[in-house]
């Protein structure tokens, strides 16, 4: 019996650790100039991270990672993934890879920023550099 989430996580941790480290480095470069531990400027986070991923060549590597991870689950993609939606999306938390496979939608999150919401709903959320990269793999 296949366990796509487990297989995907294992493949990322064993074969794509350098990619995870490089994503962490990109996030560190985004947060380095902040004068506090957080920012409320979403654009700084999302556009900055996207730019760092592009400049480092990671954005173009992420579809290759996705295809390899899907293959490791024993499934196939119906189309070649690209470095854009719906396969690769750069969010305010970090890059997200998505693919539809037999049992459902495989979602891989590389969370490098936390979204901190204020108790006052009128205040914008803040973005704080996460400690490392939190890998999330789910089947939805």
TrEMBL record:
This is DUF7988 domain-containing protein. It comes from Haloterrigena turkmenica (strain ATCC 51198 / DSM 5511 / JCM 9101 / NCIMB 13204 / VKM B-1734 / 4k). Residues 6-140 form the DUF7988 domain. It comes from the Archaea. The lineage of its organism: Archaea, Methanobacteriati, Methanobacteriota, Stenosarchaea group, Halobacteria. InterPro entries: DUF7988.
């Amino acid at each position: 019996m296949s366990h796509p989430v487990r297989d995907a996580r294992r493949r990322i941790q064993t074969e794509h650790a350098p990619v995870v480290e490089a994503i962490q480095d990109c996030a560190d470069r985004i947060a380095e100039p902040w004068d506090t531990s957080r920012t409320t400027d979403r654009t700084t986070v999302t556009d900055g991270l996207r730019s760092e991923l592009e400049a480092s060549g990671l954005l173009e590597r992420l579809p290759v990672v996705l295809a390899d991870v899907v293959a490791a689950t024993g499934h196939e993609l119906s189309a070649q993934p690209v470095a854009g939606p719906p396969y690769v999306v750069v969010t305010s938390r970090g890059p997200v890879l998505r693919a539809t496979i037999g049992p459902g939608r495989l979602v891989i999150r590389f969370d490098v920023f936390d979204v901190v919401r204020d108790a006052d709903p009128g205040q914008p959320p803040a973005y704080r550099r996460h400690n490392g990269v939190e890998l999330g793999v789910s089947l939805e």
